[in-house]
Design goal:
By secondary structure, the protein is α/β, with parallel strands linked by helices. The chain contains seven helices and 19 strands. It has a ten-stranded mixed β-sheet, with helices on one face.
């Protein structure tokens, strides 16, 4: 064990739930969920969190405004280095914020979540009691505000709850204030009460750092979750989703695209639990990879014994733009019930040379023909974004 990790253990021992982290070592590729992403290198990484005493007076307000969204069109929830800053946010009047005790659990099996929980004695719960006309935006900003501080690890942990019949459009944005190589470890729990609806879009554009985001979504009767993910730019970016369809007619969908280059690793793990009859899940991700980048899609859908009349779909498609990039795709179904409709599929290949040649015969250059085919590949997935304003914002980030 490295000296840095030993020092971290000594530090964590003074924190709540440290034992859960220590009992679950960093996952290697021997752990099923991390089969294609070996994280043992983190044992030599400075994992102690950046201190909470933020000096926001050093921030360039004009630059900050460019990182958040227009207040006329969005409610902004601003986080800097994992800390929620209400004074820099514009919040809806109907929002209720509670402070909760740590939700750590001995049953938690993901080591990185346990590491986060070790540093999270209190968490925030954002309660939405009424539907909103404007979308909400959780903006996570990495900023090196003090050059004397050596710590580079950021932890955030909060819960978003939608009450009965509430309908909201939401975007999560992960971005850097300046170039940095921080380690980000975020836990975001989402609860949708009966007949609640969440249009949830995730925009990952923080460059060069390590980004690990853990989403847990619980749905009650007739609740609907519509997720969309754009994953790009980080050195390593991992998105974990745990979807729990707890009651009848609950419905969850995750679509998205990941764009890899320059040795990036873009990892996606989606675990879906169909715990009740008449539930629906659908996950569809596409990837475009080049320059030795690696894409990972691992989806596991589980239907318990006796849970009937479910619909479960998984689909992953990838385009490799050179011979040095790679993709690992593993959709899997664990169905222990009859009377279900389930499907999964995966394709990985290169651009169709016959299609490129056909476009060239119609006057397109080779590069223009490739661009047409890639645009057709991405447009299908972008059409699944529901909010037109958010669709425009995300498409402009490509």
């Amino acid at each position: 064990m490295s000296e840095k990790l030993e020092n971290l253990i000594s530090f964590v021992k003074n924190k709540k739930s440290w034992q859960y982290f220590l009992n679950k070592n960093f996952p290697s590729n021997k752990v099923e969920e991390y089969k294609y992403l070996d994280l043992r290198f983190l044992s030599n990484f400075d994992l102690k969190p950046i201190e909470d005493n933020l000096n926001t007076s050093q921030l360039d307000i004009n630059l900050l405004k460019r990182l958040v969204f227009d207040e006329k069109e969005f409610y902004n929830f601003v986080f800097i280095n994992g800390k929620f800053l209400e004074n820099l946010s514009n919040l809806p009047k109907t929002l209720k914020i509670n402070k909760l005790q740590n939700r750590s659990s001995e049953n938690e099996k993901i080591a990185l979540k346990n590491l986060n929980l070790a540093f999270s004695e209190k968490i925030l719960e954002f309660n939405f009691t009424e539907s909103l006309k404007k979308p909400i935006a959780f903006v996570h900003i990495n900023a090196r505000l003090d050059e004397k501080v050596n710590e580079k690890s950021i932890y955030s942990n909060y819960r978003v709850s939608l009450f009965k019949d509430v309908k909201i459009s939401m975007i999560d944005k992960f971005v850097n204030y300046e170039k940095n190589d921080f380690f980000n470890n975020n836990i975001i729990d989402i609860f949708l009460d009966e007949n609640a609806y969440l249009d949830h879009n995730i925009l990952q554009e923080s460059e060069d750092n390590l980004q690990f985001n853990h989403y847990k979504v619980d749905l009650e009767t007739k609740a609907i979750y519509r997720g969309f993910l754009l994953n790009q730019k980080s050195k390593i970016s991992r998105f974990d989703f745990e979807i729990n369809l707890n009651k009848i007619d609950s419905d969850a969908q995750i679509n998205g695209i990941y764009l890899g280059e320059k040795d990036q690793i873009l990892d996606h793990y989606i675990k879906t639990n169909h715990s009740f009859k008449n539930t629906l899940s659908s996950h569809y991700l596409k990837g475009i990879l080049k320059d030795r980048s690696k894409g990972i899609f691992y989806a596991s859908t589980i239907a318990k014994k006796g849970v009937k009349k479910i619909v479960a779909k998984q689909l992953n498609k990838n385009i490799l733009l050179d011979n040095e990039s790679s993709c690992f795709s593993r959709p899997e179904l664990w169905i222990k019930a009859d009377d279900v409709k389930c499907s999964h599929g995966s394709t990985t290949g290169q651009l169709d040379l016959d299609a490129i040649f056909y476009l060239q015969t119609r006057g397109f250059s080779f590069d223009a023909a490739k661009e047409v085919l890639l645009k057709a590949f991405t447009d299908e997935i972008f059409e699944m974004i529901i909010d037109e304003n958010i669709k425009k914002i995300i498409k402009e980030k490509i």
